[in-house]
UniProtKB/TrEMBL annotation:
<keyword id="KW-1133">Transmembrane helix</keyword>
<feature type="transmembrane region" description="Helical">
    <location>
        <begin position="168"/>
        <end position="189"/>
    </location>
</feature>
<feature type="transmembrane region" description="Helical">
    <location>
        <begin position="81"/>
        <end position="99"/>
    </location>
</feature>
<dbReference type="InterPro" id="IPR010721">
    <property type="entry name" value="UstE-like"/>
</dbReference>
<keyword id="KW-0812">Transmembrane</keyword>
<keyword id="KW-0472">Membrane</keyword>
<feature type="transmembrane region" description="Helical">
    <location>
        <begin position="126"/>
        <end position="148"/>
    </location>
</feature>
<feature type="transmembrane region" description="Helical">
    <location>
        <begin position="289"/>
        <end position="307"/>
    </location>
</feature>
<protein>
    <submittedName>
        <fullName>Uncharacterized protein</fullName>
    </submittedName>
</protein>
<dbReference type="Pfam" id="PF06966">
    <property type="entry name" value="DUF1295"/>
</dbReference>
<feature type="transmembrane region" description="Helical">
    <location>
        <begin position="28"/>
        <end position="50"/>
    </location>
</feature>
<dbReference type="GO" id="GO:0016020">
    <property type="term" value="C:membrane"/>
</dbReference>
């Protein structure tokens, strides 16, 4: 597997130095340039994963590579408002995700906890490296191409739209502006869900530290700082700390509000593109569809791990939908102790 990756990497290097590829940024379409960059990112992520035994390199690209791709589309469109407006919103999405990933330690060597579990379940190093190549690096980076691909037809269209700047803005129909508003709403949803989850894990860690014996005592080094103790005392969802998982706030309405927000952003981008093109279906819908399929599988795998750790989680699953808010009153704290 390492030899195969080395051959691929060498081939990319040879192409990069060939005369034909030197002209690619000028000659290639935005989509072709995005695909070329994605191939390079995939190979590097695969190699770094094998070298470091850390398989979260693609995770570190989730908030940055799609933003880079979006700005390539904007550049190729000469920053036409038809492309620039959604690209700015995508950049806001990327800034939010980058901030949240960074404060959780994602850029400091922290590996996604699911990869070691899955690697152990696979149990064969060759099969694991094949999974790393095809799914972690190949499929996920391919998704970056696909869920940003609604910008590709807009980039091509912008060259054919002439007139003043105001004419370019009016080329976006009301449905397009509604889709942009939906993107902002879903980014806001993700932001609130991320903060609620961050606060919960902070409260959980502080609570654990306060109860952890240190040198035979329950105080001392294990005691939170005064400001942390005050923050913990004011934390409103203490029942969630004892059960081990968050089921209050947005999480009382659906189990994964951040997943809903993520899917909403990319479905809304597709709807924006479709509205500007005055069409309902376009091949670029494949990105939002495949991302939805990925999240369904990821939800099942992640919840299997969570349910094995926390006995109350199955009751939470039974009372609260995963992604679609069917009960806006919410359940919270594992169905409010079965009411």
């Amino acid at each position: 597997m390492l030899a195969a990756a080395a051959v691929l990497f060498a081939a990319m290097g040879a192409l990069a130095y060939s005369g034909s590829v030197v002209q690619i940024p000028e000659k290639a379409s935005a989509l072709e340039l995005v695909i070329l960059i994605s191939l390079s990112l995939g190979i590097m992520s695969f190699l770094f994963g094998m070298i470091t035994s850390d398989y979260s390199w693609v995770d570190r690209l989730w908030s940055t590579a799609p933003v880079l791709f979006a700005w390539i589309y904007a550049l190729k469109a000469d920053f036409s408002p038809i492309v620039l407006l959604p690209v700015i919103v995508v950049s806001l999405w990327g800034a939010r995700l980058t901030f949240n990933f960074a404060r959780r330690g994602g850029y400091s060597g922290m590996e996604d906890y699911r990869w070691p579990i899955l690697r152990k379940r696979i149990g064969n190093e060759w099969l694991w490296q094949l999974f790393n190549l095809l799914f972690i690096c190949g499929f996920q980076i391919g998704l970056f191409i696909l869920f940003t691909s609604p910008l590709a037809p807009l980039s091509r269209m912008s060259a054919a739209v002439s007139g003043s700047v105001s004419d370019l803005f009016t080329a976006i129909p009301p449905a397009g502006y509604a889709a942009l508003a939906a993107m902002l709403f879903f980014i806001g949803l993700e932001t609130v869900a991320d903060q609620q989850q961050w606060d919960f894990h902070k409260a959980k860690a502080l609570s654990k530290a306060a109860k952890t014996p240190v040198a035979g005592k329950t105080t001392g080094a294990g005691k939170p700082r005064e400001e942390d103790a005050q923050w913990l005392a004011a934390y409103p969802w203490k029942d969630d700390i004892s059960q081990g998982f968050l089921s209050s706030g947005l999480f009382s309405i659906i189990r994964h509000p951040n997943y809903l927000g993520e899917l909403g952003v990319w479905w809304s981008l597709y709807l924006f593109s479709a509205a500007v093109q005055a069409t309902l279906f376009h091949w670029s819908i494949s990105g939002a569809v495949l991302l939805s399929v990925l999240f369904v599988g990821s939800t099942a795998f992640t919840e299997g791990i969570t349910a094995s750790k926390y006995p109350e989680y199955e009751r939470f699953q039974a009372s609260t939908p995963a992604l679609i808010p069917l009960n806006l009153k919410g359940g919270s704290s594992a169905a409010r102790e079965d009411s």
